[in-house]
Amino acid sequence: MQFFGGSDISPSPPVTTGSGDNGHMMYIFNRNGVCLLYREWNRPLKTLDAQQDHKLMFGLLFSLKSFTAKMDPTSVEKGNLGLPQLPGQGCSFHSFRTNTYKLSFMESPSGIKIILVTSPKTGDLRESLKYIYNLYVEYVVKNPLYTPGTPIR
Amino acid sequence: MAPIAPRSGDAVFANVERVNAELFTLTYGAIVRQLLTDLEEVEEVNKQLDQMGYNIGIRLIDEFLAKSNVSRCVDFKETAEVIAKVGFKMFLGVSASVTNWDADGTCCSLILEDNPLVDFVELPDTCQGLYYCNVLSGVIRGALEMVSMKTEVTWVRDMLRGDDAYELKVKLLKQVPEEYPYKDDE
Amino acid sequence: MGREVSESCVDNLIIEMVSAYCNRFYESKPDLAARRIEAIGYQVGLQLSERYTMERPRFTDHLEAIKFICKDFWSEVFKKQIDNLKTNHRGTFVLQDNRFRWLTRMSVDTNQTNTDSSLDTAENKETQSASMHLYFPCGIIRGALTSLGIPCAVSADMSNLPACSFVVRIKG
């Protein structure tokens, strides 16, 4: 399966900005925390085994979601910190940036989480994430040989 | 960026790849017929149709979400409306209506007056007790489970049994929040 | 134009039907599962063909009927015609669809370099379940031709995904 540079796929991919070579990693998780897909393009740091790495990424998002919702100044309802949330409940963050990288995130109401880690100069990737979600639907979910909930080969 | 409003069922249906409903209807009919031959018991056929629907539902949900732009399904009332108006429309080309809400908003009816599954279908007397469209209730149950809603879906009215419409009762049992999936000592 | 439904309805129904027969009803009996899936296809082909030929004169020979399958029938079902038709003039016809709709989303990983034996079996299983999906269209063709008065056997070859060849052997 090819993600960037696909041929006859619809809808058409959003125009990418920048000079390529921006992407570091991509993760797709399902609602049970199973990492369905991991790809890396440019990641010199390799200190963790894959499973640890996926767990850490999932944990980071899980906690961040919980914290961001807790700190939401506009919402009346507040769960206790760490209390399980429904996907799509409360506010949700879609990216954060450090001096060395940017993490963009989307979560579907069905709990599919797509994460792109790119250069800190990358712009808004929300359309790209949605595009990837569409690819996931067309080429993974609709593949007759794919068993839902298993890693994408 | 303001959140994008969900698309209307008509708009989504106009944009998806469509096929002759005959192929769909006849394929479903042939499956039910084969199941009746292979499984013999009508009750077992009902159960398997529901199971098939459930498995379809857990696949279908992501296509539904991706194409309809629905970005959250937290409120059950809202979700039921979206299933009826967008979900049914975008897959089957017909919409359902939602009625009969109970007082606490956890139980409603989806009513379908036009149902492509049953074109050219007449049930012989030997199929008493068969819920021919049981795949539909399974699809709804499966899809809702993927958006954290445990439901019970049952038939109230069935035109193949002489009623004036198809009516599915959808009861929300509980909403299952997302738990941290790993144990700490793992 | 008659009533339409989303293509996804048909795709998902077939995926689940094949999976139910292969993984639940006849898990350890793939031959039996294949026969049932073919029988469902047969029924569909029979009924579709009857509908599509209601207002047509009867076909005068086998080639006429096969051409009808390649053009009109295929267009109704798959929105395109068969791309290539070959025959040995002794009752065998090969119908090739260069981009068979029901296979376009199937990805069978054929250049797996890993020699891990567990992966090998997984792969075999994958090829096997991929071929399970072809009994349904084979049944459809056999059903359609039978309704036109041509008893036959139909097999399929998908060594060139997403192209697919259906081999029709006319009986008698």
Describe the structure.
The complex is a heterotrimer of chains A (153), B (186) and C (172). Chain A is built from two helices and five strands. Chain A is an alpha+beta fold. Chain A has one domain: Beta-Lactamase, CATH 3.30.450. Chain A has a five-stranded antiparallel β-sheet with strand order 2-1-5-4-3, covered by helices on one side. The termini of chain A are close together. Mean pLDDT of chain A is 79; it is low at 1-12 and 15-19. Chain B is an alpha+beta fold. Chain B has a four-stranded antiparallel β-sheet with strand order 2-3-5-4, with helices on one face. Chain B is globular. The mean pLDDT of chain B is 90. By secondary structure, chain C is an alpha+beta fold. The N and C termini of chain C lie far apart (38 Å). The interface between B and C is medium-sized, with 35 and 31 residues.
- In terms of per-residue confidence, which ranges of chain B show pLDDT below 50 for 5 or more consecutive residues? none
Instruction: Please give the number of β-strands of chain C.
Output: 5
Task: Characterize the largest beta sheet of chain C: strand count, sense, and whether it forms a barrel.
Answer: 4 strands, antiparallel
Oligomer classification = heterotrimer
Helix fraction bin of chain C = 40-55%
Which structural class do the helices and strands of chain C define? Answer: alpha+beta
* Number of structural domains of chain B: 1
CATH topology of chain C: Muramoyl-pentapeptide Carboxypeptidase, domain 2
| Tally of structural domains of chain C | 1
Low-pLDDT segments, ≥5 res of chain C? 111-118
Number of helices of chain C: 5
Order of helices and strands of chain C: EHHHEEHHEE
Q: Kindly state the mean pLDDT of chain B as a whole number?
A: 90
User: Regarding CATH, which class of chain C?
Assistant: Alpha Beta
